[in-house]
Amino acid sequence: MALATLSIRVDEQDKKQFEAFCNSTGMNVSVAVNMFVKAVLREQRLPFTVQTDPFYSDENMERLRASIAQMEVTGGTIHEVL
After folding, report:
1. 50: closest CA among 40, 38, 42?
2. Residue 79: pLDDT over 80
3. Cα Rg for the chain, rounded, in angstroms?
4. pLDDT at residue 78 above 70?
5. Domain ranges of the chain
6. How distant, in Å, are the alpha carbons of 16, 27, 46, 51, 73 from that of 21?
7. CA distances from 7 to 11, 30, 35, 37, 60 (A)
8. Which of 2, 25, 67, 70 has the fewest CB neighbours in a 10 Å radius?
9. Terminal-residue alpha carbon distance, the chain
């Protein structure tokens, strides 16, 4: 089996945390990434659910913009925390 190199870019802190996780489970990053690749190929899907965050939907963004505009006009309402 010929091996190929796969280069990816990740946040430096995420990389450190991922390396620490891998080490704590007795594997290295290469083994973990290869496990991910094999799972994707075997299952023909990502081994986790990917979905959009409804917070960023056009409908919600418009609602937030309207709320902000209303607050800027009226000064907003202060709610007391009980």
Report:
1. 40
2. no
3. 22
4. no
5. 12-74
6. 9, 9, 20, 25, 50
7. 13, 11, 16, 14, 37
8. 2
9. 65
CA–CA gap between residue 81 and residue 47 (Å, rounded): 42
**What residue type is 5 in one-letter code?**
T
Tokens 């594997």 sit at which residue? 27
Structure token pair of residue 45: 């899907």
Q: What is the 3-state secondary structure (H, E, C) of 15-72?
A: HHHHHHHHHHCCCCHHHHHHHHHHHHHHHCCCCCCCCCCHHHCHHHHHHHHHHHHHHH
Q: What's the mean pLDDT in 49-66?
A: 87
Helix/strand/coil for 4: coil
Token pair 């994707």 in the structure block, residue = 40
